[in-house]
Design a protein that fits this description.
- The structure is a single chain.
- The protein is built from 6 helices and 9 strands; from the N terminus they run βββαββαβαββααβα.
- The chain is an alpha/beta fold.
- The chain has a 7-stranded mixed sheet, sandwiched between helices. Strands 2-3 form a two-stranded antiparallel sheet.
- Helix 2 packs antiparallel against helix 4.
- The longest helix has 15 residues.
Length: about 200
């Protein structure tokens, strides 16, 4: 088992939120609080240190008092760049950490045992990395990533132009942790305005 002390976390908030009409999805309100607040409350206890991956003015995340790390590659190349940002940050700022867990900023109901389950299947299956799975589909950006592969990820992004998470993970042994999707999928994400209304219903349950 990979203990919590060896796992840092990064909340991926660097996307362009086109389906939400732009802006920061994580700053939209859910139950009177930013969606990001719900995410952080659930994931922060699961890791030894936590950062937010976001581009632009870091001041808009000041209330959470967490490090804000931008994409290390220009032009919003997607979630893999956010994963790399988290790996680079942890390698420098969190000595002794071997892995980084990534969480989407728009998934306010992620499981409270998410990181432990990812670490468990990674070890059990002798894999290089792990991701979550529910309702018959993988969630590639909900993952556990080894810091040892950050150089390979950087090369894939910069030298090869890889952008899809699945393309990169297909090069390695990927474990999947299955989560029950009833009565609601824990990886429900608020991508569109209508999703926020659905999330409100789930929150008040």
């Amino acid at each position: 088992m990979i203990e919590r002390d060896y796992i840092a976390g990064v909340v991926l908030a660097g996307g362009l939120a086109r389906r939400m009409g732009g802006g920061d999805k994580g700053l939209r309100l859910l139950g009177g609080r930013p969606v990001l607040d719900h995410v952080i409350a659930r994931v922060k206890p699961q890791v030894t240190d936590l950062a937010i991956n976001a581009n632009g003015d870091a001041g808009r995340f000041a209330d959470w008092r967490l490090p804000v790390v931008p994409d290390p590659i220009a032009d919003n190349p997607g979630p893999l760049a956010g994963v790399l940002a988290g790996l680079d940050w942890a390698a420098v700022a969190v000595p002794g950490v071997t892995h980084v867990a990534s969480f989407p900023c728009d998934a306010p109901f992620v499981p409270l045992d998410l990181v432990a389950r990812l670490a468990e299947v990674l070890v059990e299956q002798g894999a290089d990395m792990a991701c979550a799975r529910s309702d018959g589909r993988n969630h590639p950006v909900v993952g556990l990533w080894p810091i040892a592969l950050r150089g390979a990820l950087r090369a894939a992004l910069v030298d090869e132009g890889v952008r899809k998470v699945d393309i990169w993970t297909a090069r390695y042994r990927l474990a999947t942790a299955n989560f029950d999707a009833t009565p609601a999928d824990p990886f429900f994400n608020a991508n569109k305005p209508d999703d926020l209304a659905a999330a409100e219903r789930l929150l008040t349950g």
